[in-house]
């Protein structure tokens, strides 16, 4: 007789050709595997909602009350900003522009802080296509309706396997990490637009180990 299949909270398979303790052991193992799968799915959903860990440290004060220091602890902004860099960010900037690097609070969990690049502002349209080697974003603005591509100079490999598009609300920003390899940065295409209120500061320079003004 062929095995019979019956649905339930876990996948229960009854092997009619077996009996006794062997059947019980098989059913117990399959139920345990089913419960484990459910737990992994739930954990993955929670992780996606809460976001990745912060990729910059808590702000550290400087003698200028409008200037704070951050220590980078991730690679989302590689190669522009690297793991271990120290940044200065101004907290009194009123207007954020395309191209600015910002320290931001993750809108879905403001205990997490990221560094990202603003590539689109209110009224802009973005179209992101996913390739095996890069997330390629075209930004259409009132001044450039033909669109500009970020990152520039990268040739995508193969055909796109997904696409994301959005029009940026006024008072919000579309932000990405400079690490545009798929999975390299947790960006607006995954969690949405960045409200102005969640911009903690605009990065003005890297102080070490390789000083640079932005």
Please explain how this structure is put together:
There is one protein chain. A hairpin with a 3-residue loop joins strand 14 and strand 15. It contains two helices and 15 strands. It is of the alpha+beta class. The N terminus is likely disordered. The strands form three sheets. Strands 3, 4, 5, 6, 7, 12, 13, 14 and 15 form a nine-stranded antiparallel β-sheet that branches. Strands 10-9-8-11 form a four-stranded antiparallel β-sheet, with no helix packed on it. A two-stranded antiparallel sheet has the order 1-2. The longest helix has 30 residues. The radius of gyration is 24 Å and the shape is globular.
Instruction: Kindly name the structural category.
Output: alpha+beta
- Pick out the low-confidence regions: 1-18, 36-50
Output the helix-strand order. Answer: EEHEEEEEEEEEEHEEE
Annotation field: number of helices: 2
| Assembly type | single chain
Helix content: 10-25%
Over all CA atoms, what is the radius of gyration?
24 Å
Task: Count the E strands.
Answer: 15
Rounded to the nearest angstrom, the distance between the terminal CA atoms is 73 Å
Question: What coarse outline follows from CA principal-axis ratios?
Answer: globular
Largest sheet: 9 strands, antiparallel
Mean pLDDT: 83
- Strand fraction: 35-45%
Keywords:
alpha+beta, nine-stranded antiparallel beta sheet, 16% helix, disordered N terminus
Summarize the structure.
16% of the residues lie in helices and 36% in strands. It is an alpha+beta fold and 214 residues long. Strands 3, 4, 5, 6, 7, 12, 13, 14 and 15 form a nine-stranded antiparallel sheet that branches. A four-stranded antiparallel sheet has the order 10-9-8-11, with no helix packed on it.
